[in-house]
Predict the structure.
Amino acid sequence: MKSSLADIKKENQNSYDGLIVTIEAVQGKMGVIFAICDGPELQLEIIDQYEKELLPTIRSYRVEVSQTEPNIRRAVGNLVESDAYLQTGGAVVVTVLGLEKISSFKSSTATDDDPRSNLEKFFGYLQWTRESFRKFKFPIIVWVSNNLVKKIIRQAPDFWSWRQDVFEFKATPENNQILNLTASTQPAEIRNNAASETIPLPDLLNIVSSLEQNNPDSPLLSSMYLRTGQAFYQLAINDRTVDPSINIQSSKDYFMLGITRLKSNDFIELANAVSGLAEVYVFQNEFVLAQDFYERALENYQRAEDLQGEADTLQAMGDSQKRIYQNTEALANYRSAIKIYQQIGDHLGEAHTLKAIGDVQQFLKQSTAALENYQNAIKIYQQIGDHSGEAHTLKAIGDVQQFLKQSTAALENYQNAIKIFQQIGDRLGEANVVKGLGALCAAENDHE
């Protein structure tokens, strides 16, 4: 069922209102804002509109990212260095363009030392230059397609976690028709509080209460319900001074409030929300209920023909099934996920799933098959520069070799894993390997 033109216009207007508020709210602070749009004409219309509306208070700049060295941090840094006003700390917004032109094919400048495609380089730059974005005290709007943002979520999760907010704009299904936008219309008292994705929980609750009383039909309310559910979930994870079950129940309640307000044809929104609720059930070790929600998310991703979401959900289902020893089902979902990851070129998703398959196989004492999948995962981790994945898989290989009493090989892989964990500052990973080393030494001593 397709959304009507009136519905799409309304959704775009709501997104535009939120975008304007966020730009104004982030002045003087670091703020990376993702704007999602698959229509080039619509994208340009929106950019022209907000640049015009923000004048004369906020100056606008545009920067296009290099296709061969796709580094947003460098592109914005070069812009700042070349512009005196940007260096004074005045009110500005920087729009980043050109990301859709980055090729996923192997670069013509690739070498044996760096065989990555330009798109893989882009993900690497996002992941490893995150800290240096702190120096930019202004909003940066990064324009991406739906396809690219899914890959960013998967392959640059640390950078994605820093986003200030996300706004999606839909082109009309028929012909990418430009949709006329008006100046921002959301009531200021709500807009100013709802601009940030990292809203403190008390403020979220105040926003929800205000909307329920004064504007219960607002499309913003479902989003606020879902954000509040996510906030309670994060509180349950991070605040050990309070019984987690209290916050978990609140999380479930708000997720359900948000989900029930979504339309049945909002496939992506429904899938994302239901998948988030499934994670809450996983946290509580309620894996059977989690599976029900994952299956609902999977159905909606499939209806939306969202291959990334479908693959990620299949992998999550496998992870949940593995926890309750449904190993046959877990392996089936992992293998289905791998096929899709390979189809869409998601190397990181493929590597993670290969390692997960290896974990299940080792549990089943299918050590030869486990080692094969671990080795295949290692190759991909090395190709894309995922040092954490490489180290964890080296540790897993060492565990299998210790099980097979291949002590020398196990010791070598443990030592290599420790080196990488030390290089990336992962103390927990290092400690887990040291624990494996201790078990290996103890077994050797017993043997002697």
Q: What stands out?
A: DSSP finds 20 helices and five strands in the chain. The radius of gyration is 24 Å.
